[in-house]
Amino acid sequence: MATPMKPEISVIITTFNAPDELWLVLVGYQMQTERNFEILIADDGSDSKTAAVIERFRQTCDIETHHVWHEDAGFRKCEILNRAIEQANSDYLLFTDGDCIPRPDFLAVHLREAEPKRFLSGTYNNLPKSFKGLITESNVRSGIVFQSKWLRENGMPQNFKSLRLIQSKALTSILNRLTTTRPTWNGCNVSGWKSDVMAVNGYDERMRYGGLDREIGLRMNNLGIRGKQIRFKAICLHVDHPRGYMNDEDLKKNLSIRNETIRGNVTRTPYGIQRDGIQRAA
């Protein structure tokens, strides 16, 4: 019996009770030019509708897809991300969200740009709320949703960010060098080596919404793992939506943890994948 091929890249997708959006994202991964990858859905306690979407996807394609789930006990994104990291079979990990639809070359770009002791910092192209319903499965499969002309005709604002959608290797390389935005660990579109993620002990499970991704990136920087800008190369689309889970108390707590990481030059959290004798909250 042949040994299964090790995936070139593990795609870790976070989600919570957004099955329609997740389906479009999974269709986007079905259309990737890179074929040797696996998907891990890091599910922060969704109901059965999300499980049904994942099973439907498994039935329609041969992409290895794992559903990593725990019960809904409030915002525990960092915990489910750490469980997905543990289960990933590739040496290289890509992190994204369950409402970020990837362009067909998305994984190919991340693999092409990967370097030792670097992580790749991308972003999403945020579309107005009016695009909800305009982005359909057929539009994702055809690729029209990534065409600037179609997006403009349907109300996408025209500004500097629109240049991300231009498919020119020469121009995107120049724009990535010229951008003043620092390369940070952005959970919607970021990739790095599993060994580096493990070295900083993954995500800090004390953190809630607001900067939790940036904090792990700060620890990587402290360890000498630097970000590389690919925001004009690795393209995914995101339709804007309310964020009812955001609150000032969590933001203040997260900021305090980030400041500790900066001041203490912290490279490894004791509240991560390995808990160093610290008990997880019940």
From TrEMBL:
PANTHER family attached here?
Answer: GLYCOSYLTRANSFERASE, SLR2126 PROTEIN
Which ranges carry the Glycosyltransferase 2-like domain?
10-116
SUPFAM superfamilies per the record?
Answer: Nucleotide-diphospho-sugar transferases (SSF53448)
What is the designated name of this protein? Glycosyltransferase family 2 protein
Query: Can you tell which superkingdom this protein's organism belongs to?
Result: Bacteria
Which InterPro entries does the annotation name? Glyco_trans_2-like, Glycosyltransf_2, Nucleotide-diphossugar_trans
Q: Where is the signal peptide?
A: none
